[in-house]
Amino acid sequence: MPGDNAMALSVSELSAALKRMVEGEFGNVRLRGEISGFKRAASGHVYLALKDDKAVIDGVMWRGNAARIAFAAQDGLEVVASGKLTTYPGRSKYQIVIDSLELAGEGALMALFEKLKAQLGTEGLFANERKKRLPFLPRVIGVVTSPTGAVIRDILHRLEDRCPSHVVLWPVKVQGQGAAEEVAAAVRGFDALAPGGPVPRPDLLIVARGGGSIEDLWAFNEEVVVRAIADCRIPVISAVGHETDTSLSDHAADLRAPTPTAAAELAVPVLADLRHTIATMALRTERCVRRYHERGGERLQALVRVMPKRDALLAPQRQRTDDLAQRLGLGLERRLGVARRRLDQSGAALRPAMLAHRHSAAAARLAAASRMLDAVNPDNLLKRGYVRVTAQGSGAVVTSAAQARGVGALMLRFGDGEVAAVVEQAGAKPYTPPKAKPAKTESGPPVDQPKLL
Fold it and tell me: Domain OB-fold nucleic acid binding spans what residues (predicted)?
């Protein structure tokens, strides 16, 4: 076959030949396409792909050139890449080594702006329900902007003119690579401050930047900044660009200011106006209080005029008091008369003749009762020859012979004294006198008691 004797090329030789041909044929080129797969490596190099509706080409941008990108490159952005077309032998593919990257035009950024606005709006980041009310008189105001330039000077000057406040500046880049990340970190840093810490926590934030092109302001359209502002618990005023400029940060903030100077005016009231308002309100309050007192005095005087006099109010009570006093006197006199009559009747019942009669009757009743008592007195019966028999020891009265035999030892009481007796009869129970119990004394042994009878 033809070419069988041709020299065989190695893979490296073929790749080198293709590389020389591509670089010699095309050299430096400018490609227009949409960024896809944008990635910034830790080394600082940038890797991406440019595509249109029919083809894709890989690209690489070395660290030195990548640091000079004037906008925040990201997927979906249409750009124009300038560089050298070459091949990558390690993977047998061609690519463009990009020297510079620029936007394809404001139309590309506006298309991306509308896309991001619709995406974030769908998540509710721009909803009015999320907006927070600004404090009327913030003690501490945090400002996120560049430490140099006219913006921070305008804000400080305007705040000093209107109402001097404590301002805390968080310096950031407001343009170029890394600006969006710094702005977002500043907003989150302010929000993370603890109340009462060494760095005072602001009551209000102002995120500001001066005017510029859409590319210059693009950092404030980045998703990371928009989310940081929307999530911030501190009320935020966005003041990016001029009055005609609009950023996604404006939509996410709690209030949009057309300029940084206007943001300072919206942040605090005019101290002189505030003092004038307070003085006016104090004067109006004083007038209202005086008018209220005057009207109250007038109403009081009107009530005094229609109010009945003291004598007229007290006349019925006085008349009733006099009537009650008269009735009380008559009642006391009647009761006193009744008491006197009862006393007279009681005195009549206690006259001497009647008392003597009652005394004689009572004495007769007493003598009859005494005679009856003497008649039934058992001691009087003993004087007439009767004897009372009791058991020795217990003192129980013995009323029968059988009881006497059972007791044995008796005590016979006569009219003039007592005599001990013992029952002695055939068949009777012999009597054994009880042993006397010795009496206990504290000084010595018990002494036997002699019999009295």
Answer: 9-101
Strand partners for 143:
169, 206
Name the DSSP letter for residue 233. S
Please compute Rg for the chain using Cα positions: 66
Identify the pLDDT of residue 135: 94
422: Cβ–Cβ under 8 A, 6 or more apart, which residues?
408, 409, 410, 431
Distance CA 84, CA 194 (A): 53
* Residue 239 pLDDT > 90: yes
Q: Say whether pLDDT at 118 is over 60.
A: yes
The kind and range of the H/E element at 87 are: strand 78-88
Reply yes or no on whether the pLDDT at 443 is more than 50.
no
CB distance 274 to 282 below 8 Å: no
- Which residue type is seen at 416? D
* Residue 428: strand, helix, or coil: coil
- Do the domains spanning 11-104 and 112-269 agree at the CATH topology level? no
pLDDT in tens, 272-323: 888 888 899 999 999 999 999 999 988 888 888 887 777 777 888 888 888 8
What stretches of 175-270 show up as alpha helix (H) in DSSP?
Answer: 179-192, 223-231, 248-252, 260-267
Cross-strand pairs, 85: 96
Nearest Cα residue to 47 out of 107, 115, 11, 97: 97
d(CA 413, CA 382): 8
Residue 350 is classified by DSSP as T
409: pLDDT confidence band, cut at 50, 70 and 90? confident
Fold observed for domain 11-104? OB fold (Dihydrolipoamide Acetyltransferase, E2P) (2.40.50)
Kindly list the domain boundaries of the chain, sorted by start residue.
11-104, 112-269, 271-307, 382-422
Helix (H, G, I), strand (E, B) or coil at 42: coil
Bridging pattern class, strands 28-40 and 409-414? unpaired
Is 240 within 8 Å of 214 (Cβ atoms)? no
